[in-house]
Specification:
This protein has helices at 11-22, 25-37, 41-69, 73-80, 87-120, 128-140, 143-161, 164-191, 196-204, 213-226, 233-238, 247-275, 283-296, 301-335, 339-359, 374-401, 404-411, 419-446; strands at 368-369, 372-373. With 447 residues, the chain is mainly α. It binds 4-fluoro-L-phenylalanine (PFF).
């Protein structure tokens, strides 16, 4: 084990890696849809408000734990906590990391299959019904999704094997700008489509009549998920942020990046959906069934399909690196083993869990928990239970139990940044975030 903990080498590198974790599948296939269905720009404004008031303080509490604790998610908790019992939250976060990565890798594998399919055959001339059965057959085939998932995990292992700076940071510094450029290009092509106005209005026109109490709860859930809160990733990445770096500005920049990328994703997707008049959808159905035949009909459709699935792959890779890194850091710190051995353990656990998730999607699979197949259950359980409980645990511990001077030291980077920011954030950590997260959690349980 190295005595000297790695750090991100540059400010841009740190932001790229953290934004890489945040901007993932959720931003591309879910965020624009949720925004469109819940009032467009009205939703975006609520999302930004909620992010500033609640998600950023929670994210900052995770960064404070990681940067101060200088260890993995579990050990960092113990370093700061007044009692060992707080370590449970760290373990819960790591469990969340295993769950989320288990289904994330399967979907990432699908995106690789679709990069391959778009390059090999293209989707030209395919009807929506043909596309449906092609996707269903692929998922039900069992071995193909597992093969691609394994390829994806090997790519993860390759990048992580090179370390934090040379692996994660270098890869994110390339992939995040590339992701942005691809989104701009795809949105540009959509700009020329007859459905552009309608597609843009879907996410950018404010419709306050669609806003209800549920909208606020959806915005909060989306914001937490987008910012990778509650799953060990941000605590681990926090431990790699340099001492002099402002945690507050990193959080604000990354939050802004998630909104910009989601709006761009919306502009790259919905104009085509409206041009060809197909039902608006989200998630796997949108990207693997609805979009391919539509993209094939656009000018340069062959390239557009390839670019879109490469985009999905980049988004999934930079996100999965942050989750896998949390496990690698945990095993190497706790078992005092070399990074490469820790990587082998993490890889072994995830390949087993992801294989089970992939198999659970086969038609007569008995791999079910609480009436859901394993794939859907890991997603639901981590987002609805682990994420709010762990987020609440972090913000309560940092707000109330970590010495105020420590939090001040971290949030002002030892006096480099203004004190009033620290005071505002501490107020929100103490009085605003806990009741609202608790409310959101109970609401989720009831509904
Ligand atoms: N932020 C990712 C997305 O929007 O797809 C999801 C995610 C990644 C959640 C990492 C939690 C996590 F720890």
């Amino acid at each position: 084990m190295d005595n000297q903990r790695s750090t991100f080498g540059s400010r841009f590198g740190a932001i790229a890696a953290i934004a890489g974790s945040a901007v993932g599948l959720g931003n591309i296939w879910k965020f624009p849809y949720v925004a469109g269905e819940n009032g467009g720009a009205a939703f975006l404004l609520i999302y930004i408000g909620i992010t500033l008031l609640i998600s950023i303080p929670v994210l900052l509490s995770e960064f404070v734990i990681g940067r101060r604790g200088q260890s993995n998610a579990f050990r960092s908790f113990l370093h700061l906590a007044p009692h060992r019992a707080w370590g449970t939250i760290g373990i819960l976060e790591l469990l969340g990391a295993v769950f989320i990565l288990s289904f994330y890798c399967v979907i990432a594998g699908w995106s690789l299959e679709y990069v391959y399919q778009s390059a090999a055959n293209g989707f030209e001339g395919m009807t929506q019904a043909q596309m449906d059965s092609r996707f269903n057959e692929f998922v039900a085939s069992g071995y193909r999704p597992i093969l691609w998932m394994a390829v994806f995990l090997c790519m993860n292992a390759f990048v992580l094997g090179m370390g934090v700076t040379k692996g994660i940071e270098r890869c994110s510094k390339f992939m995040i700008p590339a992701l942005f450029c691809i989104l701009v290009m795809l949105a540009g092509v959509n700009l020329l489509q007859p459905g552009f106005k309608e597609g843009a209005a879907f996410i950018l026109e404010p419709d306050w009549s669609a806003v209800t109490g549920q909208t606020v709860i959806k915005a909060l859930g989306q914001s937490f998920f987008s910012l990778s809160i509650g799953m060990a990733a941000m605590i681990t990445y926090g431990s790699y942020i340099k001492r002099q770096e402002s945690l507050v500005s990193v959080s604000v920049i990354v939050s802004l990046a998630t909104v910009i990328m989601a709006v761009l994703a919306g502009l790259a997707i919905f104009p085509s959906v409206f041009t060809f008049n197909v039902p608006v959808a989200s998630g796997p159905d949108l990207v693997f069934k609805t979009l391919p035949p539509l993209f094939a009909q656009l000018p340069g459709g062959y390239i557009i399909s390839i670019l879109f699935f490469v985009l999905l792959f980049f988004a999934a890779l930079t996100t999965s690196l942050s989750i896998m890194e949390s496990l690698v850091a945990f095993f190497s710190d706790e078992l005092h083993i070399r990074r490469i051995s820790a990587l082998a353990i993490g890889f072994g656990i995830i390949i087993v869990c992801s294989t089970l998730c992939a198999l659970s999607q086969m038609p007569d699979s008995s791999l079910q928990v609480a009436g859901l197949n394993l794939f859907d259950w890991t997603d639901t359980f981590s987002s609805n239970y682990i994420l709010p409980i762990a987020g609440l645990g972090c913000v309560v511990m940092v707000g109330w139990f970590v010495p105020k001077s420590t939090v001040e030291h971290e949030l002002t980077s030892s006096g480099r940044y203004p004190l009033w920011i620290f005071r505002c954030v501490l107020f929100m950590m103490r009085f605003i975030c806990p009741p609202i997260i608790l409310f959101m959690f109970i609401n989720g349980l009831v509904s």
